[in-house]
Design a protein that fits this description.
The complex is a heterodimer of chains A (about 180) and B (about 240). By secondary structure, chain A is mostly helical. Chain A is built from nine helices and no strands. In chain A, helix 3 packs across helix 4. In chain B, helix 7 runs antiparallel to helix 8. The chains are: A mainly alpha (about 180), B mainly alpha (about 240). Chains A and B meet through helix 3, helix 4 and helix 6 of A and helix 1, helix 2 and helix 3 of B.
């Protein structure tokens, strides 16, 4: 029993992976790849592309593993790498387009999106969002980045991130209400 | 900080990758590009360490204080000057004669003083020096002729000085001219030659003699006075 725990332990696998142990790397990959692909799929609709991006992300994880400082969670560090990889992919494909909207933020209610729908449905709704606001929504709602961080990473203003988030929420609400009406 | 429930649920979304995905990643990790990156990084690390070591070594090996010696100023010399200088030969029979340059002055000498160019000035100085040297070492004239010429010249100068027609510089010029004339009028013969080496030997002999006498006196005084004890203390 203790042996199994040792094998599945992240730090042990990381240490082995640092020594270029392919088995340990495979174990880490098998453990985290479904989650990472799920994350990439939030940003890139096409599954083939998202898988390619995920593999690139894992390549970076294993080649830059020495930079992991053991301070935060390993999963969090990997998720960050995957998000950056997705953004760079979208940048290359010229899919990072943000349209500024002049809107009063005072009237905006930045509440959490009400989850009155099934998670699977929500995944589908998110996938239907326009590229610009989808990225901001994913980064803000799913990954928990702050507006200033998102603005810095995407090289846009804080105002733009807020606008994009507002647009995403509006669109999601509309989609949910339409679907609820359909169900009723 | 506790994460919202919806975030956790959204983050836990899983999609199974294709079956050959690991193979692709494994191939990518085995590719020379990935290996090269690692090797390059290692090489860079080693190179940086070596560079640091070398620079530190240079820093400490450098002398802290540099003593800059004052530049040596060498006076300009002419090849001719060395030729003109009198030679002191060990051979007692060697004849020392003045160089032909001395005669050139006689031939070209004018009653009016000539203002030569820079090069000529150096040459003149060299000649004058050579003339002085030859006078001290070689006396190629008889006493009688010297005496006659000097008295003649001194009489001339005295009369000129008394009349106020001559100044000191002109007197020295006249004296120089008379010296040169003496040299020219009296050809050098082997009988009149004085060996410089012989003179030196004589002087050294005298010195040795005086030193020997002094030493003998000292030894005798010490021997005569047995009470005196000479001791040497190292400290």
């Amino acid at each position: 029993m203790s042996k199994v725990i040792k094998i599945n332990n992240d730090s042990h696998l990381i240490n082995k992976s640092l020594q270029n142990n392919r088995k340990a790397q495979k174990l880490l990959y098998e453990k985290y790849s479904p989650k990472m692909l799920g994350l990439c799929a939030y940003y890139i609709k096409d599954v083939q592309h998202s898988e390619e991006v995920m593999l690139n992300g894992f390549f970076k994880v294993f080649t830059k593993l020495s930079q992991y400082s053991n301070e935060g969670s390993f999963e969090g560090w990997m998720r960050r790498i995957m998000v950056f990889e997705c953004i760079s992919f979208l940048r290359k494909k010229n899919k990072l387009i943000f349209t500024d909207e002049i809107e009063s933020f005072e009237t905006m209610v930045i509440n959490e999106v009400e989850l009155a729908v099934a998670v699977e449905d929500l995944h589908n709704y998110i996938n239907e969002l326009p590229e610009g606001c989808k990225i901001v929504f994913n980064m803000y709602v799913i990954e928990g980045y702050k507006h200033t961080e998102i603005a810095k990473i995407l090289n846009i203003t804080v105002g733009t991130t807020k606008t994009q988030l507002h647009r995403a929420r509006k669109a999601l609400r509309k989609m949910i209400s339409i679907n609820q009406k359909k169900v009723l | 900080m506790k994460q919202p429930k919806y975030r956790e649920e959204l983050q836990n979304r899983t999609i199974d990758p294709s079956s050959d995905s690991w193979e692709r990643l494994s191939k990518k990790l085995d590719s020379p590009k990935a290996k090269k990156k690692g090797i390059k990084l290692q090489l860079l690390k080693y190179a940086a360490a070596i560079l640091i070591l070398i620079s530190v070594g240079f820093y400490f090996s450098e002398p802290k204080e540099k003593v800059i010696s004052s530049p040596l100023i060498v006076a300009p010399t002419l090849k001719k000057q060395l030729d003109i200088l009198p030679e002191i030969n060990n051979d007692s029979q060697t004849e020392v004669a003045a160089k032909p340059e001395i005669y050139m002055i006689e031939k070209n000498s004018n009653p009016e003083p000539i203002i030569p160019s820079n090069k000529e000035i150096i040459h003149e100085e060299v000649v004058a020096y050579a003339a002085e040297e030859t006078e001290t070492l070689v006396i190629p004239v008889t006493e009688k002729t010297v005496h006659d010429t000097l008295t003649k010249t001194s009489l001339q100068t005295e009369t000129l000085l008394s009349e106020g027609k001559i100044i000191d510089d002109e007197v020295t010029q006249l004296l120089n001219e008379s010296k040169i004339r003496l040299l020219l009028n009296n050809p050098i013969t082997s009988k009149n030659v004085v060996s410089a080496q012989a003179l030196l030997n004589e002087v050294e002999g005298d010195l040795d003699k005086a030193l020997k006498e002094k030493l003998m006196e000292k030894i005798a005084s010490i021997l005569n006075n047995p009470k005196e004890v000479v001791t040497y203390q190292e400290n």
